[in-house]
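hey can u check if this looks right to u? its 603 residues, i copy pasted from the old doc so theres a chance i mangled smth
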Amino acid sequence: MRRIINIAILLLTVLAAQAASFTVEAPRQVIEGNKFNVTFVLSNGEGSNFTPPEVSGAKLIYGPSVSHSYSSSWVNGKSSSSSSEEYTMIYKATGTGKCHIGAASIVSGGKHYSTRAFTIEVLPSGSSQPSQQTQRTPGAPTPYSDPMTQSADKEVSGKDLFVRIEMSKPRVYEQQAVVCTIKLYTKYQVSQFLPTIQPSFDGFLIEEIPMQPSLNKVETYNGQQYMVAILKKCILYPQQSGNLTISSGNYDVSVVQFDTFRSIFGTISKPVEKDLKVTSNKATIHILPLPEPKPASFTGAVGKFNVTTDVKPATGLKTYSAATYRYIISGTGNIKYIKAPEIKFPDQFDVYDPKTDVQVNDGAGDMSGRVVMDYTFIPQYAGEFDIPESEFSYFDPETGKYVTLTVPARHLTVAKGEGQPSNHYRMKNMDIRPIKSGDLGLKKSHGYIVDSWAYWLWFLLPLLALVALLLYYRKQLKERADVRRMRSKRASKVAQRRLKAARGFAARGDRSGFYAEMLNALWGYMSDKLSIPVSELSKDNINAELEQYGIDEQLRKASMDLIDKCEFAQYAPELASDDMNAVLDEAAGIIDRLESVKKGVRS
């Protein structure tokens, strides 16, 4: 008896500690001629003198209907309880437009409580059943707040809990953004939710919108009220036309039901978990192909964009000094996937691959921001030059048409700087040879061509050429069978390609990348030239092989010193003070000297 009294005191203390609240629940939208409920809920209190609201735009059919409920539960050693009084009014929408619901009032514990006034939108008859969020005032109970309706012996059907895939649009163009939202609808509390098979997005590029799933929304779907959590939200960019389907996902869900029993203190509830397996629906969207013909300057941009350009430095360009041509595309659409345009630079410029920086924000239905493409170039000659006018085209899905923007030309004045043109550009603009003058050796001849030995030689030439080709082919087969010799022959070409890549790092001022590429070039050259396996590469082995190859001591020392210099600079770039262009010239000179030495012969 003493234990029962203590429990009763505890329950009364909990109830007394909970403040009373008066809230209202109603749909946001109804259809003309349909009935709808408006429920006024008094939580944790006993009410009297309930005053219904004044209503315009709807006719009262029944009410108020009063119901009382009380529940308590113990979870992990903690007790909780709640009580409520519900006053339900049933109305019928009499006309389209707005239905105004005034404030209702009640007295509880000597205090006067009122709800807020609100408005319901009445849709024309014949409209589809709206799926909307229910209007709820703060403190209103959730759809699964009453354990009496969530008994453990009740079967959880597909209408009580399900996962639904929603697409923001039924059809879009290729590369046009469409928002995919995966939602959990439930009438029960969910204690655990684990995806076992995620939906697949074949045919789409996907950009996920970060979010933390939580059951914090109430929606009405197919005329029933659910708590809703957004599990996943992403922006999809279709890569092909036709009907694309997002496959269903599988989920393991644990819901909370209640074993309830009555006692002298009221209804007692005990939570019970039930494990369910849930499969979501499939979603299909129709993808329209981009119209033909496409502009020549179109590279796949879909949305709305603007283009600006800039040159840094804007003035004071000099030969052999790096500069940047900046191409900026801003707007909304598939901006993250726009390809870098081909810019036609003057032939007298040494141009490197563009560096791209994408800055975007995920909006409600698309990505917006800008993409900056920096083209590094080095003028090789002084003078006046032009980066010609160009075009940028994109497809606007709102108008269904292509838009072509004109990118204005850029005039550049390049002054003479210190240095010399690179080997690649020294012979530019030299493709026309001088006109020959003087005695041309012309003469008049009356002989017959068949009497000439040259006439018969033309019959022998194909045969001789065939024999020479066969001999050359046999020689090539023999050389290619010698793997070590082929690696040695290609060593210089491979090294030159790597040195060119290092020159690009030097132009951008990237010392770490420069010396890393220089070491790749030097170690790779020594491995190929001397036929040393990579696993056995060391400076001692290289020095010994160079000596055996016939390289003099001075050239061997210069080679080892260069490798030491590059290794030191790579691991301590802040201490390295050597000019990167001078290091490039030194490496090229050493490789040329090594190539000039024949095996077994000292230079």
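The longest strand covers residues 58-75.
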